Amino acid sequence: MEEQRLGFLGRWSSRRNYRSTRLSFSSFLKGRKLFIGNLDARELQRYNEFLDSRHVSKNAKSFYNRNLRAVYNRAVQDGYARRNDSLFSQVYTGIDKTRKKALPVDILRKIVSLDLSTESELSQARDFFVFCFVAQGMCFVDLAWLSKKHVRGDELCYARKKTGERITVQIKPCMTEILERHADASWGEYLFPVLHTTKSEDAYQEYTYRLNRYNLYLKEIGKRVGCPFPLNSYAARHSWASLARETGAPVSVISQGLGHTSERTTRIYLDELDNAVLNEACQRVIDAVFQK
């Protein structure tokens, strides 16, 4: 029922997460039926022991537990279960530290200068990566849905798909070059040739496929430049944040650039940060990589 509701709302990523959790929990039940309102701490603990037996990572366990908690909370809200605030207190729902994905400046420079003139797929992936990096660590999902309506003069103004946070990015010359390079191949109003439909579910399925291909191409690019870990789409975001910090940008400025919500307290007394401060920080990041 929750998956149907999310599909109706067009929240395809959340629906996929819930479906993955449902399949995992069904595998644990082995044909048994369990109404969400009858879920108790003992059953939840047995499920986590089942995940341990499958050698599921700590973050993956947290992913499943958080999704189960969300479904349970929805059931409570709709009157299908009694509230038990301690139900999930004995299972892991946090986020474990993962390996740092920020790239050293020398690797970023190698990616920018790598000769891919005869390999169109890799060249396109490199362009997407560089654009995301320069555009304040833009997520690939946001790049995929960028359209002409998001261009306002010399700025990109869009809302993050994940959080809805409004982002304003000054369009730098290197970004303009990339946009112009892919303009003819882009479909409809989109700025990049990633999506070829405006239908919500079809677009999400196409995005998922293109993201997988994008990460495969990035992995190959990473190998060629000696990347210290398998290169993927997240590296552009981590690298921008890390380099912005190294070049002196305050955490609050970086938080605004990334569209994070974790600096809410800072925003209360800073209000909206001056865009000139953010643009200056972005330019320092670009200069560090594209310097002659």
Q: What strand line-up does the widest sheet have? A: 1-2-3
Biggest beta sheet attributes: 3 strands, antiparallel
Chain-averaged pLDDT: 84
Low-confidence stretches: 262-273
> What's the SSE pattern?
HHHHHHHEEEHHHHHH
What is the radius of gyration computed over CA atoms, rounded to a whole number of angstroms? 22 Å
CATH fold-type name of the largest domain? hpI Integrase, Chain A
Beta-strand content estimate: under 5%
Query: Based on the structure given, which CATH architecture of the largest domain is correct?
Result: Orthogonal Bundle
Helix content, binned percent: 55-70%
How many structurally independent domains? 2
Count up the helices: 13
Describe this structure in words.
Strands 1-2-3 form a 3-stranded antiparallel sheet. It has 2 domains: 2-77, no CATH class; 105-290, hpI Integrase, Chain A, CATH 1.10.443.10. The chain has helices at residues 2-8, 12-29, 41-53, 58-77, 105-113, 120-134, 140-144, 173-182, 200-225, 234-246, 251-258, 264-270, 275-290; strands at 151-152, 155-159, 166-170. Helix 1 packs antiparallel against helix 2 (12-29), helix 2 crosses helix 4 (58-77) and helix 6 packs across helix 10. The chain is built from 13 helices and 3 strands, in the order αααααααβββαααααα. A hairpin with a 6-residue loop joins strand 2 and strand 3. The protein has 292 residues and is mainly α.
